[in-house]
């Protein structure tokens, strides 16, 4: 951070926004005392693993999840000029709108699609937009999430009615809870990693999601964070398992076979390419920074399709990138 200089955005310890008065750290790898430390959500690649400061700007749910996942006791605080807006990514996820001379919107990971268990992210007018680019190439376009949820439920229901067990391998925070919501009412069982996150997200859920060891019927559905959890599935059930997953990467040819899955559904907790372009258009910024994923491709598309200045925010060791404009020079 360069507190004496004019505002700038750099990617170093997370994303650093320096207004000249207050340094902001967006999803830093280590928190810094004296800065405004913002945590967008509780996925591990966005959580601080170091730093003495435990007071952070985040939602209550993310504070709870982050404390569980890191073993650190975070405390939520507010900061002048910082607003948290629903990101629609996972429970507790938030975008950060920072108003300090200019309006800067940091999306973190986000999703603008209507889902069964989360409200979608909504665009807001901003001067500077810092957006994720996970699926920032035109070939990554997803089907309607609600319709796909119905397809998933039908496929699983057919297996269950035929006494064929289904074993989902999913991320324990976000993906697990979404697929459990889609399949609620079916005989669901989760491994301990998923159940620990279920309790933080749902509260009491033992009445509709059991532990793996409790499964007794062949027509059971297992929600697990790793294939290793198959060892806990009762032997008589284990012999006929169908393996499945949900991921945005499932739109890519060969993903299912490469992962050794019987079925892979492109249900994502991120925006697809069209969603990203539409979000940028509606936010109508004067400049966009792209981070995480296909940053070069998305920045080029934003410039070509929308006529908005855009560039990848590349990681660097120190200082402001050569040629990088200061925030106060944007119209």
TrEMBL record:
Residues 265-310 form the Zn-dependent metallo-hydrolase RNA specificity domain. GO terms for molecular function: RNA endonuclease activity. This is mRNA cleavage and polyadenylation specificity factor-like protein. The lineage of its organism: Archaea, Methanobacteriati, Thermoplasmatota, Thermoplasmata, Candidatus Sysuiplasmatales.
